[in-house]
From TrEMBL:
<feature type="domain" description="4Fe-4S ferredoxin-type">
    <location>
        <begin position="90"/>
        <end position="118"/>
    </location>
</feature>
<dbReference type="InterPro" id="IPR050572">
    <property type="entry name" value="Fe-S_Ferredoxin"/>
</dbReference>
<dbReference type="GO" id="GO:0046872">
    <property type="term" value="F:metal ion binding"/>
</dbReference>
<dbReference type="InterPro" id="IPR017900">
    <property type="entry name" value="4Fe4S_Fe_S_CS"/>
</dbReference>
<feature type="domain" description="4Fe-4S ferredoxin-type">
    <location>
        <begin position="119"/>
        <end position="148"/>
    </location>
</feature>
<protein>
    <submittedName>
        <fullName>4Fe-4S dicluster domain-containing protein</fullName>
    </submittedName>
</protein>
<dbReference type="GO" id="GO:0051539">
    <property type="term" value="F:4 iron, 4 sulfur cluster binding"/>
</dbReference>
<feature type="domain" description="HTH cro/C1-type">
    <location>
        <begin position="24"/>
        <end position="66"/>
    </location>
</feature>
<dbReference type="InterPro" id="IPR010982">
    <property type="entry name" value="Lambda_DNA-bd_dom_sf"/>
</dbReference>
<dbReference type="InterPro" id="IPR017896">
    <property type="entry name" value="4Fe4S_Fe-S-bd"/>
</dbReference>
<keyword id="KW-0004">4Fe-4S</keyword>
<dbReference type="InterPro" id="IPR001387">
    <property type="entry name" value="Cro/C1-type_HTH"/>
</dbReference>
<keyword id="KW-0479">Metal-binding</keyword>
<keyword id="KW-0677">Repeat</keyword>
<dbReference type="Pfam" id="PF13187">
    <property type="entry name" value="Fer4_9"/>
</dbReference>
<keyword id="KW-0411">Iron-sulfur</keyword>
<keyword id="KW-0408">Iron</keyword>
């Protein structure tokens, strides 16, 4: 089932990117797939309407829940991160007052967390894959995924 839902969410992203003027080739590259699959998404041949409905219901959830679900759909964090970044404007915020400088968040698997001034970590948005691991690692809740204006509504 997760792979069906992943396909449904990819199809929704493909349609969104198409509306934004991206070419099929560009969408295929972005979603790391082939043009035939993108063509099926755009023409409604795949996945099924039922899968698309369920996928859309997930995206209708508050973004913090939708992102958590998307992150469970694949171990390929490059692709989940691309999907999330196509759908939402999201970044990791560090609340300095809550940080106890424990360094746990430096365990980010993608090297996106770096030591900043006075030992308070900073997150490099280019490297961040929005996996949420650092927010679970932080013992004080100083790290949070912050959703800016939702791209779906732009
Ligand atoms: S959300 Fe994931 S990729 Fe981004 S900084 Fe945190 S651990 Fe690293
Ligand atoms: S895990 Fe939390 S408390 Fe520890 S250094 Fe990172 S932000 Fe600060």
């Amino acid at each position: 089932m997760p792979e069906h839902i992943l396909s449904g969410i990819k199809a929704i992203v493909a349609m969104k990117l198409r509306r934004e003027g991206k070419l099929q080739k560009e969408i295929a590259e972005y979603l790391n797939t082939n043009r035939t699959e993108i063509s099926h998404y755009l023409q409604g041949r795949h996945p099924s309407k039922k899968v698309l409905r369920t996928s859309q219901e997930i995206l209708n959830l508050p973004p913090q829940y939708a992102v958590r679900i998307i992150n469970t759909l694949s171990d390929d964090k490059e692709i989940t991160s691309r999907i999330i970044k196509a759908l939402y404007r999201v970044e990791v915020e560090v609340e300095r007052e809550k940080c106890i400088l424990c360094g746990e968040c430096l365990e980010c698997p993608y090297g996106a967390v770096e030591m900043g001034d006075f030992g308070v970590p900073v997150v490099n948005p280019e490297r961040c894959r929005v996996c949420g691991r650092c927010t679970s690692l932080c013992p004080t809740g100083a790290l949070k995924l912050i959703f800016l204006k939702k791209k779906m509504e732009e």
